[in-house]
Amino acid sequence: MTNSAKSTASTQDFAVKLPVKEKIGYSLGDMASNLYFGIFMTFLPIFYTDVFGLSAAAMGWMILITKFWDAVNDPIMGMIADRTESRWGKYRPYIISMAPFLGICGVLAFYTPDFEASGKLIYAYITYTLVLMLYTAANVPYSALMGVMSPSSLERTSASQYRFVSAFIGQSIVSGATLYLVSYFGNGNDQAGWMRTAGAYGLLAFVLLAITFFSTKERVHMSKTQQGNTKQDLKDLFQNKPWVLIGVATFFQLVYIVMRSSSVTYFFKYYVLDQQLTIFNYTTNLTVTSFTSNFLLLGNIAGLLGAIYAKSFARTVDKKNAYSGALIVSSIISCCFYFVQPHNVMLIFSFSLIGGFLLGAVSVLQWAIYTDTADYGEWKFGRRSTGLIMAASLFALKLGLAFGQSCMAWIMAYYGYVDNAEQTEYTIYGIRMLMSFYPAIFGIIGGLVMIFYPLKNSQLVKIEDDLSKRRMEA
């Protein structure tokens, strides 16, 4: 082959435009992940307090400790995946092999044993730790896979867009169907209903992850001259300023999202209660179950629209500005929930739609930015560690998740929450603050951090060109 032909072939290799069916196949993996993430983030707290039987304070410590251990596992899993060599690539084998075990442990996590309080707490520690470790073993390689499907930043942003459309569909399934499924499968027995619902989600997740495995390819490969060096990989990671900034922003973003999301079920069950909705002289009764489910579902549908428009925002104002602005405005909207009265049904739904739309864009932009930091790391340091970067990103995400849910539980305990009882006015005040001002503080901080993020669209184009030339010369 002539040098000219070789150059042309290489250029074509590195100008990969991902097929739509591959983007869809990849995206289904995040639908599977969000079946778990959604139920853990929104419904796990109220399951543990009102069904399983843990106190709010004990639950807070349990979530913090297990989530911290889970977060530590992420970089370890990333380095393991980066060093894996198989006929299916570095990351894809873990997606399919971990799926069945994740489903089984998901069921065990939502099983309520007939133990004393101390026995239940130990059981919760063990099962929740196991399911989180298996989630990590599947989700870290899945997240890293997007970074090696194409060398193009815009193609990865597009794949991220597809990914989060599916993610929000997964979240919408959880938001809109969970409480109804618990009622249907339990038939009056909430303990059985939660376990069977977790089983249904686990089976669906297995099918979706299998489709992701069979429909995707790994195209961007680590340089053959690059040797595994854990110390150097970690040094490069923390010298990668763009990654550090998005990592810090992610922590605050997740504290905001999780603190508020975990409070939703309590907000409706103990403050909003049953209401009526009247539209054009048509009146319908909204039970707590239907009101909560529709609120969450509408927010996720709006998030889906935000995910669809995220790429347009990124092209217009740079990813960092779109991310920062959407996160800050969403946090301000969240504050409005403190002022709404239970009968302001349309206002409650309106705030859900606006906030959901903005967070949809934030989520897509967040992961697209992470893959850009992987390119930056390779460009700056001459080494590519996509798995470690994505795993460390999940570390920041899970720390935020742990801190957000734990703070929510401790604040509930501080305000005197008692499960399945009529709450005091002081407790209701705490629940309203947890839906509004407390989480908003963290969201605003996260948005402000990204003001200092240095990578703009123009610089990313230059990085892509430089990396393509290096790969062709290698």
Which helices and strands, and how do they pair?
Blueprint: H1 3-13, H2 20-52, H3 56-82, H4 92-109, H5 117-149, H6 153-186, H7 190-215, H8 230-239, H9 241-272, E1 275-279, E2 282-286, H10 288-317, H11 319-335, H12 345-381, H13 386-414, H14 425-434, H15 437-449, H16 457-473
Helix pairs in contact: 2-5, 2-6, 2-7, 2-9, 3-5, 3-13, 4-5, 4-7, 5-12, 5-13, 6-7, 6-10, 6-12, 9-10, 9-12, 9-13, 9-14, 9-15, 10-11, 10-12, 11-12, 11-15, 12-13, 12-16
Summarize it.
The chain is mostly helical. Helices cover 80% and strands 2% of the residues.
Mean pLDDT across all amino acids: 87
Helical stretch count? 16
**Rg over CA atoms:** 22 Å
β-strand amount: under 5%
Would you list the SSEs in sequence order as H and E? Answer: HHHHHHHHHEEHHHHHHH
Q: How many E-type strands?
A: 2
- The shape, in one word, is globular
pLDDT < 50 runs, ≥5 residues: 1-14
The first-to-last residue Cα distance is 16 Å
**What structural class is derived from the secondary structure elements?**
mainly alpha
What are the main properties of this structure?
2% strand, disordered N terminus, mainly alpha, 474 residues, two-stranded antiparallel sheet, 16 helices
Provide an overview of this structure:
The two termini are 16 Å apart. Mean pLDDT is 87; it is low at 1-14. The protein is globular. It has helices spanning 3-13, 20-52, 56-82, 92-109, 117-149, 153-186, 190-215, 230-239, 241-272, 288-317, 319-335, 345-381, 386-414, 425-434, 437-449, 457-473; strands at 275-279, 282-286. The chain has a two-stranded antiparallel sheet. A hairpin with a 2-residue loop joins strand 1 and strand 2 (282-286). The chain has 16 helices and two strands. The protein has 474 residues and is mainly α.
